[in-house]
Amino acid sequence: MKKERIDQLLLNQGLVPTLERARALLMAGRVLVGNQPVTKPGALVTGDAQVRLKGEELPFVGRGGLKLEAALETWEIDLKGQLCLDVGASTGGFSDCMLQAGAALVWAVDSGQNQLDQRLRRDRRVICLEKTNFRYAQLELTGSYVDFAAVDVSFISLKLILGPLYGLLVKGGHAVVLVKPQFEAGRGQIGKGGLVEDPLVRQEVVRQIVEFAQALGFLVRAMRESPIEGKKSGNLETLLWLEK
Q1: Is the same domain home to 78 and 180?
Q2: CB 3.0-4.6 Å disulfide test: which of 1, 183, 218, 243 passes with 213?
Q3: How far is CA 125 from CA 19, 79, 105, 107, 112, in A?
Q4: What pTM does this model have?
């Protein structure tokens, strides 16, 4: 029997509304073939394969939304009517979370392209800014100061992001920033697959980002561990709550 990609099969069987949602569920380990989890969207399976979703479907288009949701709930951050910015939007998990929390408008910024979920692309409350390197961002990017921002970036240090972020936030505005240790630690401190196992290294990474943010003028309101690990590296990540 002819084989097809597992993400396409999920879409064809009506288990997900979009390919982006299929890929998010796969990378979250929520797709089972038989009783075995499949995590690679390009994995090939036969058309008669017994495919099912594990647990409830993700409430957001990407698993990143679960991280931001935890921050908003823990710190009781109210986004109703807010102008928001999603830096490192990817499929749009953070953007989706912001909208569901009542955001009036979200600028979804990413250096890549064709990643944002189609449902969000069609949403009039979302402005998609693809192929945009945020490290060079100025107020012209949005044309307006934003009330709230969330940051989830890869392959770049937050130290290159926090300055432009500070410039776009309104005075008194808030931000939730995800600290990924593999993109902040020294090369010799990172293990196979990008895993940073030493808790002391992770703590030092967070300390350095906190001090850098404070030097820019941010108030560091709180921090907490992300409720889920990094999807590829398995790293323990930290959420910071900043205020301008």
Answers
A1: yes
A2: 218
A3: 22, 13, 5, 9, 20
A4: 0.78
